[in-house]
Amino acid sequence: xxxNQAIAALTALGHPTRLAAYRLLVQAGPQGxxxxxxxxxxxxxxxTLSFHLKELLYAQLASSESQGRHVCYRANFAxxxxxxxxxxxxxxxxxANPGCAPASDCGC
Length: 108
Prior knowledge:
Elements (H helix, E strand, L loop, with lengths): L2 H11 L2 H13 L4 E2 H8 L3 H13 L3 E6 L2 E6 L1 H11 L21
Antiparallel strand pairs: 1-3, 2-3
């Protein structure tokens, strides 16, 4: 992951509604969630949610798929793992403590 991609991802996740929506997508796994389900769970109007989901799409943290009149959103697990790898790339490189390495990824 490039620095600009990491900045875009962290910026997108830096808002409470977007972070909550992304966490719901991660929790849903590969099948994702319908936009209406996300709006209901977060108790936000559809237009507001659409604005926030657009930011997650722009940051490539999520993808969308039209299913008739509805839209299904899915977390981009490769991007999520890429961001984690970027953030922890040199984790504990200067530490003498061998137990400080980050936890392994979720395998998604």
